[in-house]
Amino acid sequence: MTGFHSSPDQPPRRPLIAILTGAGISTDSGIPDYRGPNGLWRRDPEAEKLVAYDTYMGDPEIRRRSWRMRQESPAFRAEPNAAHEAVTRLERSGTPVRVITQNVDGLHQRAGMPDRKVLELHGTVRTVTCTRCHARSSMQEALARVASGEPDPPCLVCGGILKSATVMFGERLDPQVLGTALGVAKAAEIFLAVGTTLQVQPAASLAGVAAEHGARLIIINAEPTPYDALATEVIREPIGSALPRLLAGLEESV
């Protein structure tokens, strides 16, 4: 590749690689996606109500169902897969890597990515937050209370309604996290969109922003996306094998 190296008396400069990940990167870990052919929303359209903010806040039965769903969530049993591990290997090689994820499962961090290099656009399922006083605590603590007989556990600080520290339908993304993600997209020289339909905004727009600012855009997804025409490469192969191979090639070439 050209344009990625400094003068001979300086160490080579490696390009910034940004990796936007969606639900498809975690399906090999046993976490189903949402909008794919066998996705959660297609199998159970009613499930969307459980993560709609206004419905959640206004209906105690929806909250009780949400807590039961969290008790059964595969996210807490899931382990990082080969794709997550490949991203961590690339970062540990010394290549500048930033992960921007639409996922809430925390598997990038579980695979060893430093917290500061992972931008969780939609929050995390591993923490709960109070909708009144904004106190945060462990999801596992809240689930233990549910298992002990509290079907809709209130905040222990102020008695307010607790929710997962994820961005529900009807909530805005954290403007600071989104702003940082935009900055990464503009600065990236290589931008990968992995396992995402690129249909949920504003996350999806990051691929377009990166391409507009000159990044080489690579999309790995089972189905077509609205941004395929902007990509220099579109890969339809299984993520668990395609991403490790691609990242190993990028590490060698930069």
What topology emerges from the helices and strands here?
Layout lengths: L16 E5 L18 H4 L9 H6 L1 H12 L10 H11 L4 E5 L5 H4 L7 E3 L2 E8 L5 E3 H9 L14 E5 L8 H13 L2 E5 L10 H8 L3 E5 L12 E3 L3 H15 L1
Parallel strand pairs: 1-2, 1-7, 2-3, 7-8, 8-9
Antiparallel strand pairs: 4-5, 4-6
Helix-strand topology string: EHHHHEHEEEHEHEHEEH
Mean pLDDT over the residues: 91
Class derived from helix and strand content: alpha/beta
CATH topology of the largest domain: Rossmann fold
Reported for the largest beta sheet, the result is:
6 strands, parallel
Q: How many independent structural domains?
A: 2
Strand order of the largest sheet: 3-2-1-7-8-9
Key structural traits:
254 residues; 17% strand; elongated; alpha/beta; Rossmann fold; SIR2/SIRT2 'Small Domain'; 9 helices; six-stranded parallel beta sheet; three-stranded antiparallel beta sheet; disordered N terminus; 2 domains
